[in-house]
Amino acid sequence: MLPKWCDKYSIHNDEIDKQHKKLFELAANVEMISDKPVHKGQIKFLLADFFNYMKEHFTEEEKYMAKIGYPELANHQKIHKSIIQSMIDLIQNIKSTNDLKEKLNIIASKWLLEHILREDMKIEKWHQAQLNKNKSTPATENTQEIYEYICSCMDKIHKVPFDVHQKIQKTNASYKCKTCQEAIKQK
């Protein structure tokens, strides 16, 4: 039996949580048809819906990870690519309706929900640790001020401490984004 969505699976981002809830619903639909006689077209429709939504979700999740500066973004992207490729491989080797149902169930339970419950919870754990670290550090004069800089990456904000900001302003130093390799600019 697949787990149901609950708040302990939240990563505290409304859009990503909404998408995770939808993926849990799709997984529940898969589980519901797994032991019932259904038409092959119905399963293919559910599979296509699952596949398309998963790709859309992975794209949004990767943008979110980039925005918060998640250090394991590259590894997480590899996992996403692996899930998509494995799904394509499974789809190409379907032999019967029961085979299709079984493979869809594997996708729903093994890859998707395990991914959310394991890998995506790592994002939340890291993000909460960063937030708590920032809360527990006492502000001393201007040294704890944070300045926001941007680069060419869509929706990415670089949090720059006061001393680095000062160096950029006074010496015209240039710092590059690790993702797009372009110099960051003050927002």
UniProtKB/TrEMBL annotation:
One of its GO terms (molecular function) is oxygen carrier activity. PROSITE patterns: HEMERYTHRINS (PS00550). Pfam families: Hemerythrin (PF01814). Residues 14-123 form the Hemerythrin-like domain. The keyword Flavoprotein does not apply. Keywords: Iron, Metal-binding, Oxygen transport, Transport. PANTHER family: BACTERIOHEMERYTHRIN. Belongs to the hemerythrin family. This is Hemerythrin-like metal-binding domain protein.
